[in-house]
Amino acid sequence: MDEVRAFFNQIEEHLMKDEKPSVFLEESRNRPEMRSFPFVYLKRLEDVEQSPVHHPEGNVWNHTMLVVDQAARRREKSENPRAFMWAALLHDIGKAVTTRLRKGRITAYDHDKAGEKLAVEFLKACGQEEAFIRAVSALVRWHMQALFVINHLPFAEIEKMKSQVSIREIGLLALCDRLGRPGRDEAREEENIRLFMEKCNSVPAKR
């Protein structure tokens, strides 16, 4: 446990201070800790491919590195920077257990829901407190809602989401997620997030 906490604290220091946390994470890819529980949850993302149409950057690890750097640019805008940065790092860990090839297409249905459970396991194994675990795992659970809401998909659950997490934080994380791939128009993505929050704010939270 001491070794796990020490490595967790190292990662956190870079997430919270570095302009590009991906530099340290890339340098750490082959450390022994990354092959052991719970950090293997991150290591295995290297082997998870994504749709080249939606993710020209390649595998989930590559995408995650781009997202954490986008998040680092915006962490001062977060209501809870520590939870926000860990959510950026863990947001797609569910893809390791949900990615499938279906009719020639790479999909990862429900990776947000699977990711919530894995984030809880990861953070508990790192000895983190319950309130922090809830904050991070909720962001992981709901990070896809911006896409669902903007595109009027049936998976949107605005009321339930609002009862569990800050819409502003989800919007910020979703923006980083969208920009964590090459060729994205930042102004357009920011406008999409603005529309997402506008729609969400018009819907009361579920009681």
Automatic annotation (TrEMBL):
Domain of life: Bacteria
SMART domains: HDc
HD/PDEase domain boundaries: 56-191
Keywords: Nucleotide-binding
GO molecular function: nucleotide binding
Record Pfam families: HD (PF01966)
Keyword check for Cell division: no
PANTHER family on file: CC-ADDING TRNA NUCLEOTIDYLTRANSFERASE (PTHR47545:SF2), MULTIFUNCTIONAL CCA PROTEIN (PTHR47545)
Protein name: HDIG domain-containing protein
